[in-house]
Amino acid sequence: MKLTAWRVALRIARRDAVRAKGRSALVMAMIALPVLGVAGADIVYQSARLDPGERITRQMGAADAQFSLYQQGMSIVQKPDPEDGVYPVDTEKHRQTPEEKKSAETDPAELVRQLLPAGSAIVPVRNGPSVAATTAHGLTRVSTAEMDLADPVWRGVVTVVDGRAPAKPQEIAATRQFLADSGLHLGDTTTLNGLAQPFTITASVEYPDRLSSTGLIARPGELIAPLTGADAKTGGQAYWGGPLDGDSWLVTLGGGAGFPWEKVKEANRYGFKVTSRQVLLDPPPRSEVPYYQVVHEQSRSVLRDPTTLTVLGTVAGMALLEIVLLAGPAFAVGARRSRRQLGLLAAGGGDRAHIRAVVLGGGVVLGVAGAVVGVVLAILAVALGRSWLEETAGQRFGHLDLHLLDLLGIAAIGLVTGVLAAIVPAVQASRQDVVAALTGRGTVRPPSRRLAVVGLAALLGGAALAVLGAAAGQGTASVLGGSMLAELGMVTCTPFLVGLFGRLGRWLPLAPRLALRDSVRHRARTAPAVAAVMAAVAGSVAVGIYTTSDQAQQRRDYLASAPAGTLTLRGIPVKDDHGAALDQARSAVESSISGLGRRADVYRTSYRGDCNEDDRCGDVSLVMPPELSCPLEGERHFSAAEVARLRRDDPRCRGGHRSWSSSFSQVPAGDSEVLRVLFGVHDRAAEQSLAEGRAVVFDPRYVKDGKLTLRLTEPWPDRQDADGEEVQPASHEVTIPAVVRTPSVFTAQAMLPVEAARKAGLQVSADGSIWQPQTVPTGADEQRAAGAVGRITADGDLRVERGYQPRSSLANLALTVFAALVALGAAGIATGLAAADSQQDLATLSAVGAAPRIRRTLSGFQCGVIAAMGAVLGAVCGVVPAVALRKVEQAAVGSDRAGAIVFPWTDLALTVVALPVVAVVLAALLSRSRISLVRRAD
Length: 938
Known about the structure:
Elements: H1 3-19, H2 21-48, H3 52-60, E1 65-69, E2 76-78, E3 86-88, H4 98-105, H5 108-115, E4 121-124, E5 126-127, E6 131-134, E7 139-146, E8 159-163, E9 171-175, H6 176-182, E10 189-190, E11 199-206, E12 215-218, H7 224-234, E13 248-252, H8 261-268, E14 272-276, H9 277-281, H10 291-294, H11 306-337, H12 339-347, H13 352-393, H14 404-421, H15 423-430, H16 434-439, H17 449-471, H18 476-502, H19 510-521, H20 523-557, E15 567-570, H21 580-592, E16 599-606, E17 619-623, H22 640-649, H23 672-677, H24 684-691, E18 695-697, E19 703-704, E20 707-713, E21 731-740, E22 750-751, H25 754-759, E23 763-771, H26 779-790, E24 797-800, H27 810-837, H28 839-847, H29 852-893, H30 905-926
Parallel strand pairs: 7-12, 9-11, 18-21
Antiparallel strand pairs: 1-13, 1-14, 2-3, 4-13, 5-7, 6-7, 8-11, 9-12, 10-11, 15-23, 15-24, 16-23, 17-20, 18-22, 19-20, 20-21
Helix pairs in contact: 1-13, 2-11, 2-13, 2-14, 2-27, 11-14, 11-15, 11-18, 11-20, 11-27, 11-29, 13-14, 13-15, 17-18, 17-29, 18-19, 18-20, 18-29, 19-29, 20-27, 20-29, 21-26, 27-29, 27-30, 29-30
C-alpha cells in the first residue's frame, strides 16, 4: 500500500474511534492497564533504587568522607565502596610497615586528623547501646545515638519530621516509630535506664532507610558517656548490647575539596576503611584497585546474576504476552462492531489490504492513546500512593525517579504489542463475506478438536519445560519459553473449554443458564474475552504464589527464641542476692499482665564458673558420635561431586543441620513445665523420663544407645607453653540417660533435669522464666510489665516472641499491587467489551417484551460467566511461572532443602469467586434499563 492509503486508513480509524467513544475507551483501557502495571512497577523500582549520590547522603549526610577503623596496626585493601569488600593484608608475609607501627601507637581520632588537610572538620559517629526507656505504659527497649541534628553534616542520615532539633541539656529527639509505640508526644519526657534525669522530647525524626526503627538521639556527650558511667557505677547491666562508641568519623574537607582514591589507599595503609563521596561518584578503574590484586574475584553486577536475569526476563516476557492477550480481544470486538462499515469499504472497491489497514490503523490510534494514558496514570498512581508504599516497605524513595527512556520504551512496547494484537482481527475482518458483513449475519463454527489437542500438548509441554528446565538450572529460555507456551496453549484450548463449561448450564437457574448458553453459542466473542481475563489473572496469581512462597521460605528460616506468643524474663543476676530480685520481678510481671497462665522457671547450666556473672567460666557442649556425624562436618575436603553425592545418598547429611536460637542458655535445665512451654513438647512419656533423671534431646544425632554425651571444658588457663602457644583448657566427657523428642520450636539442642545436671558436675543457676498466655500480650502490656521490673532492678530482659514479621520490599509490593489492579481492571473491561458485543441480543430481549430487570440480570451473568471462566483458567496458568521461578532460585542456592512453594489458597479462592461476583454486580448495575433497538439481521 502507498503512504497516502495508510494516511486515509489512519484517518478512518481515528474518526471511527471518535464516533464510538465508549468502545474506544474500553479498548484504550485494555491497552493502558498492562502499561500502567509495568510502568508503575518500573517507577517504584527506579525510585527505590538509590543513585550513588543519594546512597552516600543516606550513609554519611553532607560529609565528604567517612573514616572507619578496621584494626589498629594493620594494613588493609578495599573496594571503592568498602561495603562491597575489605581485606586485611597478611602481616605474616611482610614485616611491619611504618604506617602499621604508627597506627598501633597513635590514638585513632588523632591519626585521622593527621591524615587530613588543615581546616577539615571531623565529627565522630557515636552509636550508643540499646537501653530501656520509660513510656506512657512502662518501659521499652530503644537504640541510642548522639548527633547534633542542627549540624548540616547529618542532613540525609536523619530527617527531622516535626519539632526542633535538641538545643539544650536534657533534650532529645525520638523516632516516629518510638513515639507511636510508646504513646509519648513532643514535649513529653522519657527516662533512660540507669540515668536519673529525664529527657524532654523536642523532635520527631526518622531514618529514611529504617522507618520502623525505634530510637533516641541526644546531643553529643549527653547520653553515651552518662550511660557508660551509670553502668560502671552500679555494676549492673544498664543496656542490652550494642557498641558504646564506634571508631568512625565523618569528615568535611575545606574549600569544597574531595577525598581522592590515592588518599583512600593511603588511609588503608593505616588500617582505616574510607567511604569517599568523590570515589563513589567517580570510581577508579579496576586496574588501580589493589583489592583485586589481593582478592581474585570476578566482577559481578546484579544484571549479570543469572537468577536475577531469569526473574526479570520472565516478568518482562509475561507482561508482553499479557498486553497482547488483553488488547487482542479489544480489537476483535472493535472489528466486529465495525463489520458493516468494513463491508461498505469492500463493496466500494476496497481490497483486503485496505480493510486490514483500517483495522491496524485502529490499533495504531488506540495503541498510542492507551500507551500514553497508561504511563500518565502510572505516574499519578505512584505519586499519590508514594507515602503508603514507603511506609509499607519501611524505606523512603530517593526521589520520584521517572526514567524517560524506560517509560518511552514501555509506551512503545504497548503500542507495538497493541498493533500486533490487531493483526489477527485485521486478517479475519479482511476475509469476511461482504454480503454477510452488510446484512450483519455471522457464522457459528464448532471448535476444532484438533486445535484443542494441539493446545493441550502445548500447555503440558510448556509447563514441563518451565518447571523441569528451571530445576535443571537452564534459566531464562526454559522458564520464559515454557511459561509462554503453556499460556498460549491454554488460549488455544479456550474455545473448546468454553463448550465444556456450557455443560454446567443444566444445573443452573434461568438467567445464568441463558448467559452460559449464549457464551457457548457465540464462542467467537467469548473465547477472546476469556483469554483476556485469563492473562490478567495469571499474572496476578503468579505474583501472588511467588511472593507467598518467598515469605513462607523466610518464615521457615526464621529462628524463634521461644514459641510464638510466649513472654520471657531473663538477664537478672542471682549470685549476690540468691535470686531475690528475680523472684520479685516474676511477681511484678504476673501482677502487670493478667491471664499469663502457669510459669515455667528455666535454669542455666555451666561448668567451673557462671559465664553470665563470673569473669572466668568453662563450657558445656553436646558430643555427636562419630558414626552419626555427616562426613561433610569434618575437616576432610570433598569435591563438589562428592558433596552432592553425600547429600543425596548419605542419610546423615540430609536435613540434619538444625539451627536453633534461644533466650536462655545453650543447654537449659528445668522441669516438665519448661518442656511444655519453652519447647512445646506435650508428651507424658517425655515428662516421666525427665522426672526420672533422663535428658530430653531434640536432635537424634546426639543420642546413642539411649545416652547423651556432654563435653565439659574448663576455663581457659590464660597462659602459654614453652613454645609460646596458648595452653588449651582441659576437658572430659560425661554421659546422661536420654530420650529423643521433636520440639515445636528448636530453642536448644537438649534439656536436662536439674538434679541430673548437678550429679554430672554442672553448676545450675536460675536463668529466668517463660509464660504461655492465652492471648499474645500487646506492646502496652509488655511496656507496663517492663516498667514494673525496672522499678525492682536495672537488669533484666523482658520480651514477647511475636514470631516472624513479614516485610515486603518495594519491588515486590509494586508487583503485587499493580498485578492485582490489572487483573481487576482487565476483568471488568473484558466483560464490558463482551457485553457491548452482545447488545444485539439484549435489544432482541427488549423487543419481545423482557423486563429491564431480566435484561440487567442476563447482562450481569454474561459478564460473570466470562470472568469465572477466565479466573479459573488464569489461576491454572499462573502456577507455571511462579513454580518455575522458585525452582530457579532453589537451583541457584544449591541447598539440599527443598525450597518452599506455597499456594495462597485464600487469595486464589477470592480471585476465582470474588472476581466473577464483582463482574456480575457491576455489569448488572451499569447496564442501561432502556436499550436502543438496533438493526436486526435478516
